[in-house]
Amino acid sequence: MKILAISGSLRKDSYNTALLKAMKALAPEHIEITFFDELGLIPLFNPDIDPNTVANVIALKNSLAATDGLFFSSPEYAHGISGVLKNALDWLVSGEEFVDMPVAIFNTSPRASHALDSLYEIVRTMSGNIIDSACITVPLLGSNLTAEGIVEDHFMSESITSAINAFYVAIVNN
C-alpha cells in the first residue's frame, strides 16, 4: 500500500512534519509512505490557469494518482489551515485525483480545533473519504520533540501505529 503524506507547514522544525516523519518510521513494511514536500513551490491558485500546465501542480496530481491514501497534518493559523495547504487543495478542486481518496488527518495541538474542523470540511467538500478511525491528535505543541522523539514516546508511537493500522484496514476492507 502506498500512502502520501502532506504537512501543511513549511517550517523546518514543524511539529506537523515531525509527526508525519514519525508515522513513516513506524509504518510496517507493507506500507510505503512518501512525502509531498513541494507545497511552497505551488503558485497561488488562479482559476484562469489550467492546472495541467503548472509543473508543481502536475507533480501533486501525479503523486495523488499513484497513492492509495493520503495523510494530512496542518498547523492552525488565524483559525484556519495553513495558506499553502489550502492553496494546494484549491488547485485540486477541478480534478478527479482527490475524489473518493481515503484521507486521515493528524493534529498536533488539542487547541487547533478550528483548523481541524476546516480541514475536515474542505476534504468532505472535495469528496475525499475521511477514515475517522485513523484521525488522531498527538499533543506536540511545546514538546520540542523531533520525529525520533515522537517514535521513542510509547504513548505517541502507539497512537500513530494504531492510526496507520486503522487506515490500512479501512482501505483493504473497502
Structure, explained:
This protein has 174 residues and is an alpha/beta fold. 41% of the residues lie in helices and 17% in strands. The chain has six helices and eight strands; from the N terminus they run E-H-E-H-E-E-E-H-E-H-E-E-H-H. It has helices spanning 15-26, 55-65, 83-92, 113-125, 147-152, 154-172, and strands at 2-7, 32-35, 69-73, 76-77, 80-81, 102-107, 129-130, 136-137. Strands 1, 2, 3, 6, 7 and 8 form a six-stranded parallel beta sheet that branches. A two-stranded antiparallel sheet has the order 4-5. It is globular, with a radius of gyration of 15 Å. 39% of the residues are buried. The mean pLDDT is 95.
Short description:
The chain is an alpha/beta fold and 174 residues long.
Task: Specify the structural class.
Answer: alpha/beta
Task: Tell me about the largest β-sheet.
Answer: 6 strands, parallel
N-to-C order of helices and strands: EHEHEEEHEHEEHH
Low-confidence stretches: none
Q: Helical amount among residues, as a percent range?
A: 40-55%
Q: Averaged pLDDT, please?
A: 95
Q: What is the 3D shape? A: globular
Strand content: 15-25%
Question: Topology of this protein?
Answer:
Elements: E1 2-7, H1 15-26, E2 32-35, H2 55-65, E3 69-73, E4 76-77, E5 80-81, H3 83-92, E6 102-107, H4 113-125, E7 129-130, E8 136-137, H5 147-152, H6 154-172
Parallel strand pairs: 1-2, 1-3, 3-6, 6-7, 6-8
Antiparallel strand pairs: 4-5
